[in-house]
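This is your field. Have a critical look at the following sequence-structure pair:

***
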Amino acid sequence: MNKRNFVTASVGLASLWSAAGSSHAAPSTKTTASQGPTLLTLSGAITRSNRGALDPAIDQMMGKHGIQFSNAHALDAAALQRMAAVTIQPTLEYDSKKHTLKGPLLTTVLAAAGVTAGSAVQLVLRAVDGYNVTISMADAQAHRMIVATHIDGQPMALGGLGPQWAVYDADVLPAFKDKPVKERFGLCPWGLYHIEVKKA
Protein backbone atom coordinates (compact mmCIF):
# COMPACT_ATOMS: atom_id res chain seq x y z
CA MET A 1 0.00 0.00 0.00
CA ASN A 2 2.75 2.52 0.86
CA LYS A 3 4.40 1.90 -2.53
CA ARG A 4 1.36 3.09 -4.50
CA ASN A 5 1.94 6.04 -6.81
CA PHE A 6 -0.54 8.50 -5.36
CA VAL A 7 -1.82 11.24 -7.66
CA THR A 8 -0.79 14.77 -6.74
CA ALA A 9 -3.62 16.54 -4.99
CA SER A 10 -3.90 20.25 -4.38
CA VAL A 11 -7.19 20.38 -2.47
CA GLY A 12 -7.37 19.58 1.25
CA LEU A 13 -10.33 17.54 2.45
CA ALA A 14 -11.07 20.08 5.17
CA SER A 15 -12.27 22.52 2.50
CA LEU A 16 -14.41 19.81 0.90
CA TRP A 17 -16.07 18.96 4.20
CA SER A 18 -17.18 22.56 4.66
CA ALA A 19 -17.83 23.50 1.04
CA ALA A 20 -21.35 24.50 0.11
CA GLY A 21 -21.02 24.13 -3.65
CA SER A 22 -23.37 21.81 -5.50
CA SER A 23 -22.28 18.57 -7.17
CA HIS A 24 -22.87 17.86 -10.83
CA ALA A 25 -24.89 14.79 -9.95
CA ALA A 26 -28.24 14.55 -11.68
CA PRO A 27 -30.90 13.59 -9.16
CA SER A 28 -33.24 10.67 -9.74
CA THR A 29 -36.73 10.27 -8.38
CA LYS A 30 -35.56 7.72 -5.82
CA THR A 31 -33.36 9.67 -3.40
CA THR A 32 -32.17 13.20 -2.78
CA ALA A 33 -29.06 14.36 -4.59
CA SER A 34 -26.06 15.38 -2.53
CA GLN A 35 -25.72 19.12 -1.90
CA GLY A 36 -21.96 19.36 -1.43
CA PRO A 37 -19.10 17.98 -3.52
CA THR A 38 -19.40 14.23 -3.99
CA LEU A 39 -16.76 12.35 -1.99
CA LEU A 40 -17.90 8.77 -2.61
CA THR A 41 -19.85 7.24 -5.50
CA LEU A 42 -21.53 3.82 -5.41
CA SER A 43 -22.59 2.09 -8.62
CA GLY A 44 -23.45 -1.32 -10.02
CA ALA A 45 -25.98 -3.59 -8.32
CA ILE A 46 -27.61 -0.83 -6.27
CA THR A 47 -31.33 -0.09 -5.93
CA ARG A 48 -31.19 3.59 -4.87
CA SER A 49 -29.61 6.23 -7.06
CA ASN A 50 -29.41 10.00 -6.96
CA ARG A 51 -27.41 10.73 -10.08
CA GLY A 52 -27.44 9.70 -13.71
CA ALA A 53 -24.92 8.04 -15.99
CA LEU A 54 -21.19 8.64 -15.94
CA ASP A 55 -20.37 11.68 -18.06
CA PRO A 56 -16.95 11.17 -19.69
CA ALA A 57 -16.52 14.93 -20.11
CA ILE A 58 -17.17 15.70 -16.43
CA ASP A 59 -16.28 12.47 -14.59
CA GLN A 60 -12.69 12.48 -15.82
CA MET A 61 -11.08 10.40 -13.07
CA MET A 62 -13.73 7.70 -13.18
CA GLY A 63 -13.49 7.61 -16.95
CA LYS A 64 -9.71 7.21 -16.84
CA HIS A 65 -10.16 4.35 -14.36
CA GLY A 66 -12.53 2.56 -16.75
CA ILE A 67 -15.59 2.98 -14.54
CA GLN A 68 -18.98 2.89 -16.27
CA PHE A 69 -22.52 3.19 -14.94
CA SER A 70 -25.98 4.27 -16.05
CA ASN A 71 -26.88 5.55 -12.58
CA ALA A 72 -25.17 5.78 -9.22
CA HIS A 73 -25.53 6.96 -5.64
CA ALA A 74 -23.39 9.97 -4.74
CA LEU A 75 -22.51 10.80 -1.13
CA ASP A 76 -21.14 14.11 0.11
CA ALA A 77 -19.51 14.84 3.46
CA ALA A 78 -22.83 15.71 5.10
CA ALA A 79 -24.39 12.41 4.04
CA LEU A 80 -21.45 10.46 5.44
CA GLN A 81 -21.52 12.50 8.66
CA ARG A 82 -25.21 11.68 9.21
CA MET A 83 -24.44 7.96 9.29
CA ALA A 84 -23.79 6.26 12.63
CA ALA A 85 -20.03 6.25 13.16
CA VAL A 86 -17.78 3.51 14.50
CA THR A 87 -14.35 4.09 16.03
CA ILE A 88 -11.41 1.70 15.68
CA GLN A 89 -7.77 1.98 16.79
CA PRO A 90 -5.53 -0.13 14.56
CA THR A 91 -1.76 0.00 14.44
CA LEU A 92 -0.96 1.49 11.03
CA GLU A 93 1.74 0.30 8.70
CA TYR A 94 3.06 3.78 7.99
CA ASP A 95 4.43 4.54 11.46
CA SER A 96 3.66 1.33 13.42
CA LYS A 97 1.56 3.38 15.87
CA LYS A 98 -2.07 3.12 16.91
CA HIS A 99 -4.37 5.75 15.42
CA THR A 100 -8.04 6.47 16.01
CA LEU A 101 -10.11 6.08 12.86
CA LYS A 102 -13.78 7.00 12.74
CA GLY A 103 -16.51 6.55 10.15
CA PRO A 104 -19.59 4.52 9.27
CA LEU A 105 -19.50 0.80 8.70
CA LEU A 106 -19.10 -0.09 5.04
CA THR A 107 -22.42 -1.94 5.28
CA THR A 108 -24.09 1.29 6.49
CA VAL A 109 -22.71 3.18 3.49
CA LEU A 110 -23.91 0.46 1.13
CA ALA A 111 -27.37 0.53 2.69
CA ALA A 112 -27.72 4.15 1.55
CA ALA A 113 -27.64 2.81 -2.02
CA GLY A 114 -30.10 0.02 -1.19
CA VAL A 115 -27.53 -2.77 -0.82
CA THR A 116 -28.57 -4.83 2.18
CA ALA A 117 -26.18 -6.49 4.60
CA GLY A 118 -25.79 -10.14 3.76
CA SER A 119 -26.27 -9.59 0.01
CA ALA A 120 -24.35 -12.03 -2.18
CA VAL A 121 -22.21 -9.35 -3.81
CA GLN A 122 -18.59 -8.49 -4.43
CA LEU A 123 -17.37 -4.98 -3.70
CA VAL A 124 -14.73 -3.30 -5.84
CA LEU A 125 -13.17 -0.57 -3.70
CA ARG A 126 -11.32 1.98 -5.82
CA ALA A 127 -8.89 4.71 -4.71
CA VAL A 128 -8.14 8.00 -6.44
CA ASP A 129 -4.84 6.65 -7.82
CA GLY A 130 -6.59 3.68 -9.44
CA TYR A 131 -5.58 1.14 -6.79
CA ASN A 132 -8.49 -1.25 -6.28
CA VAL A 133 -9.36 -4.39 -4.39
CA THR A 134 -12.32 -6.74 -4.49
CA ILE A 135 -13.83 -8.01 -1.26
CA SER A 136 -17.00 -9.97 -0.64
CA MET A 137 -19.83 -8.50 1.37
CA ALA A 138 -19.40 -11.44 3.76
CA ASP A 139 -15.75 -10.55 4.42
CA ALA A 140 -16.52 -6.84 4.72
CA GLN A 141 -19.07 -7.71 7.40
CA ALA A 142 -16.84 -10.24 9.16
CA HIS A 143 -13.99 -7.70 9.30
CA ARG A 144 -16.37 -4.89 10.39
CA MET A 145 -14.80 -2.72 7.74
CA ILE A 146 -15.50 0.98 8.07
CA VAL A 147 -15.33 3.89 5.67
CA ALA A 148 -13.11 6.08 7.80
CA THR A 149 -13.56 9.81 7.32
CA HIS A 150 -11.51 11.00 10.32
CA ILE A 151 -8.12 10.11 11.77
CA ASP A 152 -7.14 11.18 15.27
CA GLY A 153 -10.11 13.54 15.41
CA GLN A 154 -9.40 15.32 12.11
CA PRO A 155 -11.01 14.92 8.67
CA MET A 156 -8.78 12.85 6.42
CA ALA A 157 -7.24 15.00 3.71
CA LEU A 158 -7.09 14.32 0.01
CA GLY A 159 -3.38 13.88 -0.57
CA GLY A 160 -3.10 12.07 2.75
CA LEU A 161 -5.19 8.99 3.48
CA GLY A 162 -8.49 10.60 2.51
CA PRO A 163 -11.02 11.58 1.55
CA GLN A 164 -12.09 8.17 2.86
CA TRP A 165 -10.31 4.98 3.81
CA ALA A 166 -11.94 1.54 3.69
CA VAL A 167 -10.26 -0.10 6.68
CA TYR A 168 -10.65 -2.55 9.53
CA ASP A 169 -9.08 -2.99 12.96
CA ALA A 170 -6.41 -5.48 11.92
CA ASP A 171 -5.05 -5.66 15.50
CA VAL A 172 -8.07 -7.67 16.66
CA LEU A 173 -8.93 -9.76 13.60
CA PRO A 174 -7.63 -13.35 13.66
CA ALA A 175 -6.93 -13.26 9.91
CA PHE A 176 -4.55 -10.30 10.27
CA LYS A 177 -3.36 -9.71 13.84
CA ASP A 178 -0.43 -12.14 13.69
CA LYS A 179 0.88 -10.87 10.36
CA PRO A 180 3.59 -8.20 10.12
CA VAL A 181 1.95 -4.76 10.22
CA LYS A 182 2.91 -4.02 6.62
CA GLU A 183 0.99 -7.11 5.44
CA ARG A 184 -2.30 -6.38 7.20
CA PHE A 185 -3.94 -3.75 5.01
CA GLY A 186 -3.84 -5.03 1.43
CA LEU A 187 -7.66 -5.01 1.33
CA CYS A 188 -7.85 -1.42 2.61
CA PRO A 189 -7.55 1.24 -0.09
CA TRP A 190 -6.99 4.74 1.23
CA GLY A 191 -8.12 7.59 -1.00
CA LEU A 192 -11.38 5.66 -1.52
CA TYR A 193 -13.75 7.44 -3.89
CA HIS A 194 -15.75 4.74 -5.71
CA ILE A 195 -17.40 1.45 -4.80
CA GLU A 196 -18.74 -0.86 -7.50
CA VAL A 197 -21.23 -3.46 -6.31
CA LYS A 198 -21.19 -6.67 -8.38
CA LYS A 199 -23.59 -9.58 -8.07
CA ALA A 200 -21.66 -12.67 -7.00
